[in-house]
Amino acid sequence: MSIHVHRPGLLTTIQDSGRYGFQQYGVVVSGPMDTFAHRAGNLLVGNPPGYAALEMTLLGPVLEFQDAALIAICGGDFRAHINGSPLPLWRPVYVPAGSTLTVDAPKRGCRGVLAISGGLDVPLVMNSRSTYLRAGLGGLKGRALRAGDVLPVGARDEAIEPLLTAILKGMDREAQFGTVSWRISETLLPKYEEHPVLRLLEGPELHWLEEESQSELFSGTFTLQPQSDRMGCRLAGKPLRLGISRELASVPVTFGTVQLPPDGHPIVLMADRQTTGGYPRAGQVITADLPLLAQGKPGCRVRFQRVTLQEAQELLLQAELRLRQLEQSIVLQFRR
Amino acid sequence: MQQIQIQPEGDHAVVVSFGKENNSVVRAGVRMLARALAEQPLKGMVEYIPAFTSVTVIYDPVLVYKEAEGQALGSGTLLPYEIVVGKLDALVQTLQEQQVPPESVVCIPVCYGGEFGPDLEGVAALSGLSVEEVISIHHGVPYQVHMLGFAPGFPYLGGMDRRIAAPRKATPRLFVPAGSVGIAGEQTGVYPISTPGGWQLIGRTPAALFLPDRQPPALLKAGDMLRFYPITRREYETWEGTSP
User: Fold this and answer.
1) A103-to-A84, A107, A111, A142, B173 alpha-carbon distances in Å
2) In angstroms, what CA-CA distances link A289 with A196, A197, A251, A283, B62?
3) Euclidean distance between CA atoms A86 and A82, whole angstroms
4) How do residues A194-247 score in pLDDT, each as one tens digit?
5) What band does A248 get if pLDDT is binned at 50, 70 and 90?
6) CA–CA distance, A1 with A5 (Å, rounded to integer)
7) Contact A274 B149 (CB under 8 A)
8) DSSP classification of residue A51
9) What percent of chain A has pLDDT over 90?
10) ipTM of this complex prediction, to 2 decimal places
């Protein structure tokens, strides 16, 4: 089973749940920018949550399926077509052999996940199939997709056969693809918005900022800069000033750490963040809200809302509960 | 070890600090906790990262909750953070009775000067020393590996002689080959992978500091001692193997 790449899209990489366990050696984690979309996509095609899928950025690829496949597109509102017929998002879709999938720019959002039943079967590098572009590690030869690439796909789980049979039975003769009548309810999705409000924890060096800048961080508006990438979302607004200028020995940083470099414009560290950093950590975007920022396009306006650690962890556990609900209802659909 | 502090870093990490100053007592604490976490990983821990004066523990709040006895997801008596801090507190208490792990000494060969060390003469001129003196000062002392970061396998080293300190290049090179040994300010280090960089390059090692298919992938780990030893160009070319 393989997929031929006709057009790679703007930046399409293979990502699984990330390369964990090697940060003490300076190895970057990588993994999906929108972790919710990645997990939901895998659930919809009957994969375990961490399977390798394609992450698409701003313009998706054109792919030809040599064999039939079950796919799902989640995340940003990408416009996708199979042989010209518009494809629904957030649903399992059966793609017959020989079909061409075209994923164009999203109406809303920035990143999409294309999950395929069986997952993308590229070699494991340090326990992960995630692409880390800067070091040329993992994924497909450590790089983004190119035209002419062939993507290997793993064997799909037998548990999805009843679903496939049901889809095929209900499929119109002229239809370009088959799908189901249900989709993930809006209420279970993160609150994707064009200009998101991100909940923020105070960072260990927040008090290094001038008082005015501390309140500006939680009340001002910041614009997402075009230099933003998988490593970090660069924000610009009224520059934040440090009241204390002190050298910080490099410290570990995590997904969501808000660094403040000397120019006063915060950077939120994302999937391909470095393992350590030397800039003051003004805050930390809560894990539950990182998918919202991952969908931010350059130019989108972002505001921060202060929360406590207790609220952050409760929100994360609630998000997990919603995902469990989703998982259970999808599994029920598969058994029908 | 009275100064140990445990603080949250965001909603999925905790930092255990052993003090503000980077001294041998603090470093011993870092090494002991890292060893303890390697031997007995906490339930729900994803990984840990030793740094200059602290160890950061990355955890999965959902897993911590699931693993905690008698806690159903979302039932909420203790936060995942509180559970992790409780366990780390108990672990840190036990460290006091333990022996500091011995430091491993890793020796790596360096071919100094020539095309491998285009800035060696400049560093010598800045220091007022001869090229030979710079080389002998550079490999004359062992360096402590404080942490790895910045790039895969890149060591933050402590202990360089101030006499050979040199500022970063005004214009960074667009390409620094893997294995390049350089000086930046009062630090020395080795580039494990080819990258752009602004360090003054004084030599190159044929040893691989980072190999993705090796377990572990990095030659060094935080807490190791690193020694450089000089080799000739011919020895560099015939050097075999990936670990010294």
Assistant:
1) 11, 12, 12, 23, 39
2) 9, 9, 23, 13, 16
3) 7
4) 999 999 999 999 999 999 999 999 999 999 999 999 999 999 999 999 998 777
5) confident
6) 14
7) yes
8) -
9) 82
10) 0.93
What percentage of chain B exceeds 90 in pLDDT? 73
CATH topology of domain A197-319: Cyclophilin (2.40.100)
What residues does each domain of chain A span? Answer: 2-184, 197-319
pLDDT digits (tens, 9 = 90+) for B85-129: 999 999 999 988 788 888 899 999 999 999 999 999 999 999 999
Q: How many CB pairs under 8 A join A and B?
A: 142
Q: Does A323 touch chain B (CB under 8 A)?
A: no
Contacts of B76 in chain A (CB under 8 A): 314, 317
Q: Cβ distance A6 to A152 under 8 Å? A: no
C-alpha distance from B132 to closest chain A C-alpha (Å): 32
Which pTM was predicted? Answer: 0.93
What structural domains does chain B harbor?
Answer: 5-97 (3.30.1360.40), 105-238 (2.40.100.10)
How far apart, in Å, are the Cα atoms of A61 and each of A17, A44, A130, B74? Answer: 21, 20, 18, 39
Instruction: Return the pLDDT at B244.
Output: 46
Q: What is the spatial distance between Cα A186 and Cα A174, in angstroms, rounded to a whole number?
A: 30
Identify from B5, B6, B7, B9 which residue to disrupt to test chain A contact, counting A C-beta atoms within 10 A and taking the largest count: B9
From B37's Cα to the closest Cα of chain A, the distance in A is: 12
**Cβ within 8 Å of residue B24, ≥6 positions away:** none
Q: Is the dihedral of CA A275, A279, A284, A288 positive or negative?
A: negative
